[in-house]
Amino acid sequence: xxxxxxxxxxxxxxxxxxxxxxxxxxxxxxxxxxxxxxxxxxxxxxxxxxxxxxxxxxxxxxxxxxxxxxxxxxxxxxxxxxxxxxxxxxxxxxxxxxxxxxxxxxxxxxxxxxxxxxxxxxxxxxxxxxxxxxxxxxxxxxxxxxxxxxxxxxxxxxxxxxxxxxxxxxxxxxxxxxxxxxxxxxxxxxxxxxxxxxxxxxxxxxxxxxxxxxxxxxxxxxxxxxxxxxxxxxxxxxxxxxxxxxxxxxxxxxxxxxxxxxxxxxxxxxxxxxxxxxxxxxxxxxx
Length: 287
Ligand code: ADP
Ligand code: MG
Description:
Strands 1-13-12-11-2-9-10 form a 7-stranded mixed β-sheet, sandwiched between helices. A 6-stranded antiparallel β-sheet has the order 3-8-7-6-5-4. The protein contains 12 helices and 13 strands. It has helices spanning 5-15, 23-28, 39-43, 61-72, 78-87, 121-126, 163-172, 186-196, 207-220, 236-241, 254-259, 270-286, and strands at residues 18-20, 32-38, 49-55, 96-102, 106-111, 114-119, 139-145, 148-156, 177-181, 200-202, 225-230, 244-248, 262-264. It has 2 domains: 5-44 and 160-286, Rossmann fold (3-Layer(aba) Sandwich), CATH 3.40.50.1000; 49-156, Calcium-transporting ATPase, cytoplasmic domain N (3-Layer(aba) Sandwich), CATH 3.40.1110. The chain is 40% helix and 26% strand. Bound molecules: adenosine-5'-diphosphate and magnesium ion.
């Protein structure tokens, strides 16, 4: 049973924008084995900006951006929004005949101009389109038109201001391991993980791979709970599976917030550290 003091703890936490859906979750935060984070939107700002457009095969930068913008016009992914902003011109949506967004991969759009693909390495591999390997520390969107490679767009995201402090504080609170999971490429993942001092990271994961990886981390745990912190629609199944599922509340998806045990209303990963602090103080009152 949950000591009554934890209900008081819920009240104190809520003043900090930390919403616990039950005293038991706050109590469980007293013993954390590992904390697993989603990358984009959780540890990073998730506000993407196009940093470079690199044409290939005799195409122009304008071509690469234009066809990417057409393919992405119906997507609400932050990547799509950054491409629309860089292109800066309106796209005639009636050009799109058929459109498919493949989660963790990219976009396939049938248009008046032909089949446009805009996505990551995995997409080009699946579609058998030749392109050079680019090991860039950023999110990369490759663009192809009628199976001809046009080039790629690099998109940068940056860590949230408090992400580094959050990771360092979790370690000093005795958390055994910090982990980052992402659908993004391994170079972008390595860059962020090293910058933040994260113990382990796993990249190029599809949504179902994230669940499998979390279960593996749960099997490896020594004692205490495995916490997962995420923000996106894709994260909801992982949040649900974690011992303690945490969602970013302000920018996070409704599905993620619904699946969560704890919601961080300020979208700040450091608030998990605060929540553990409140849990420990509450615990010392409770016993
Ligand atoms: P994360 O796991 O980092 O939150 P997602 O699962 O949303 O990221 O996406 C994983 C990867 O899939 C992205 O890094 C990108 O390479 C590719 N991707 C997803 N959606 C799109 C899109 N609309 N356009 C291009 N690429 C996309
Ligand atoms: Mg995300």
